[in-house]
Amino acid sequence: MSSVLEKKDTITTARLPIEVRNKLVYLAKVKKKSKSQIIIDALELYYKQDEEEFVDSYKIGLPYFGKYNLGPGDLSVTYKERLREKLWERHRARSSSN
Q: Is residue 1, in this structure, part of any structural domain at all?
């Protein structure tokens, strides 16, 4: 059951330095918007920019993955098997030389 208050706008109080308040009043007058709407727009813009600043390292590295083809692409999956084979080869080489 949702509350009636969840569906309505709420009043929030903020303490602003006089310079910031003057800028708010100026913008509201120039843009012909309420001070509340200027604050809402500013917060939405701030939130959007904050989301865009999130760095996804996978997306950044995507153009470089596999670019240089430095060997088999399954090393992270098959490293145990490859290590076992190398050790077995080394063991056989030592056994045959004795």
A: no
